[in-house]
Design the sequence.
């Protein structure tokens, strides 16, 4: 079975648990492998490590508001790095959708965003669209 | 035309669209005609849909400022994007063409909105957001009860665990706290995490801060529609019996109780500036 590597970046370990639980309930026809990070710095390290060992992260669920490296700063950082310009695909998680977020979403080609509060269906259908739309089943 | 001039009864609204100044316009003359016809001395320039304006257009707005000044009137720009704000600053007109984050902020500057008129508007978005977030994210139906002002004799905190978040805007600064009894919190933990837990711990406590953060995000959406603009900080969580809510405000604290199938919890909004002091506690609006 093909593998889908998903990274959850949120400062709340409990919210990461909720997101993981919701996503894991979906039927993607792929083996889901989860990675977690409490902030952007840890996430970046894991993404680079996974890339080096040839098992790159496919999709990141990224919280907007985090301490230290915020979701926005992380987004700017990763999109400026050549190997990661197109992939991993990014789903922003935000409690707000305002001009700053929308500008960033457009500017950095964020693949999708989910507004909190979210349902299980919101997360599964968002990921499903990425898996289908970006041809992840074939590519992995 | 990149602009439209509208009569809003108490002020003149100039709505801008796209890039302003590339066409041959005569904003100042058109404004003078409308101002004379309507007899108004305040002007709001809505810049939310304006991507940029050139120096010629800025000079037209500066002329509008001078016109209004002769009548003791004022002009405010609302919703300028950062690039536009920089352009105005670089042209040296930022003290004349002052930008406000919200329509409400501009109306307060003009003295057209009194503080007591905000009260119910401010409470209801939090009330609606709390209900929505509890339902969608925590699977709990919460019914708001009559809000009341916290008395000095009330306990410092009404729940066992609280998520607290500071709020700042042009017309409000204070804190939002969601304070939950242990039983409700553990029900939320079970509903969200799918795990039964028997106590509030260091491991699960951050959920209450997340909930406060999501509630504030939802409330902001509704508040923006009402002309408010809010900035929020990262939430903090406190817990333990009789713990103190670290409200940053020194003003009035409005308590909104919510009834759920597993008990009552409390949402508290404390203000630094007494904004909520005159809230009408007899008529809570339930969405």
Sequence:
């Amino acid at each position: 079975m093909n593998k889908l590597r998903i990274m959850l970046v949120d400062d709340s370990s409990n919210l990461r648990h909720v997101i993981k639980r919701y996503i894991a309930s979906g039927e993607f026809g792929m083996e889901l492998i989860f990675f977690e990070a409490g902030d952007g710095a840890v996430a970046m390290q894991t993404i680079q490590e996974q890339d080096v060992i040839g098992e790159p992260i496919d999709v990141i669920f990224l919280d907007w508001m985090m301490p230290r490296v915020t979701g926005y700063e992380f987004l700017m950082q990763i999109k400026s790095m050549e190997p990661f310009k197109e992939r991993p695909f990014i789903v922003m998680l935000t409690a707000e959708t305002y001009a700053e977020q929308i500008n960033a979403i457009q500017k950095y080609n964020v693949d999708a965003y989910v507004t909190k509060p979210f349902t299980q269906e919101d997360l599964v259908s968002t990921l499903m669209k990425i898996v289908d739309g970006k041809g992840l089943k074939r590519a992995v | 035309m990149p602009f439209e001039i509208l009569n809003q009864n108490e002020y003149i609204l100039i709505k801008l669209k796209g890039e302003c100044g590339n066409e041959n316009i005569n904003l100042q003359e058109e404004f003078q005609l409308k101002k004379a016809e309507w007899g108004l001395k305040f002007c709001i320039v809505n810049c939310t849909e304006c991507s940029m304006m050139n120096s010629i257009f800025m000079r037209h707005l500066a002329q509008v400022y001078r016109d209004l000044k002769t009548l003791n009137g004022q002009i405010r720009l609302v919703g300028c994007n950062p690039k536009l704000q920089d352009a105005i600053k670089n042209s040296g007109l930022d003290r004349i063409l002052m930008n406000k984050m919200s329509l409400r902020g501009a109306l307060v500057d003009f003295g057209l909105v009194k503080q007591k008129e905000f009260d119910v508007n401010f409470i209801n978005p939090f009330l609606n957001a709390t209900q929505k977030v509890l339902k969608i994210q925590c699977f709990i139906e919460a019914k708001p009860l009559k809000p009341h002002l916290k008395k000095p004799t009330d306990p410092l905190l009404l729940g066992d665990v609280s998520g607290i978040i500071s709020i700042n805007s042009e017309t409000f600064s204070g804190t939002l706290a969601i304070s939950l009894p242990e039983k409700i919190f553990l029900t939320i933990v079970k509903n969200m995490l799918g795990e039964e837990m028997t106590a509030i711990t260091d491991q699960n406590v951050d959920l209450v801060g997340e909930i406060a953060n999501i509630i504030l995000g939802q409330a902001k959406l509704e508040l923006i529609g009402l002309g408010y603009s809010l900035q929020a900080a990262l939430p903090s969580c406190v817990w333990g019996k009789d713990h103190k809510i670290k409200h940053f405000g020194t003003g009035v604290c409005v308590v909104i109780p919510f009834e759920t199938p597993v008990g009552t919890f409390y949402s508290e909004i404390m203000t630094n500036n007494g904004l909520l002091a005159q809230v009408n506690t007899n008529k809570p609006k339930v969405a």
